[in-house]
Amino acid sequence: MKKWNVAAIRASKGVEKLGCCTAYDACFARLADEAGVPIILVGDSMGMTVLGYETTLPVMMEQTLSAVAAVSRSVKEALVVGDLPFGSYQCGEDDAMKNAVACLKAGADAVKLEGASDRVISLIKRMTEAGIPVLAHVGMMPQCVNAYGGFKRQGKTREEAQAVIRDARRVAEAGAFAVTLECVPAELAAHITADLKIPTIGIGAGGVCDAQWLVMHDLLGLNENPPKFVKKYAELAGIVRNAFRAYVAEVKSGAFPG
Ligand code: KIV
User: Does ligand 1 come within 6 angstroms of the Cβ of 202?
Assistant: First the structure.
């Protein structure tokens, strides 16, 4: 199979559903790539999954670049998307452009950013025109956690749903090659999926989207308390804990090294 590119991702709409996930290091990215995951997102969820924060907000651009470089070094076929962290595209367009360029220089094939305000729409247009493919993100935007007052499902009322539909149209018109729909009702995600020409990638947004995201630590069962919509495809936390336990016990008893 050859390398996924944004044209192939666009063309997958209505043809094939894509199971996409996050990864933050070379080891897991290689395994996901070998398994045929078409898009690997170096998500700012690393703030919570890898760095131990409560939210994605503390993630620094340098941490994103280092993870993007590690992931892209080991990926052969998946499209690698660098998630621009909070603060990297909020402080001026030129700054945002520099950070997006840095992401591609580190090895990403595209960048992801959250929102559909006039400011973000202008960025999506400028990045797209500069040859930087953009994956948009609407619905629940974790970088707005402080503005929401918690990680709150979006699009529940008629007005909120209209706002998410408008946001999804705006990012598509601005040139995004796909859009993430996070934590919105399934009927709303289905409506947007039918409405747009670009693929929708849902997370906590029901089964009708063109593709799905799962955060790697949730998918593999490394996170033992994942959100309710998650399906764990393995229970690695217990396996890993038991392996560490057995190792410590064997060193103590003298069984290892033999
Ligand atoms: O950072 C992240 O993990 C995300 C999800 C949508 C997959 O943005």
Answer: no
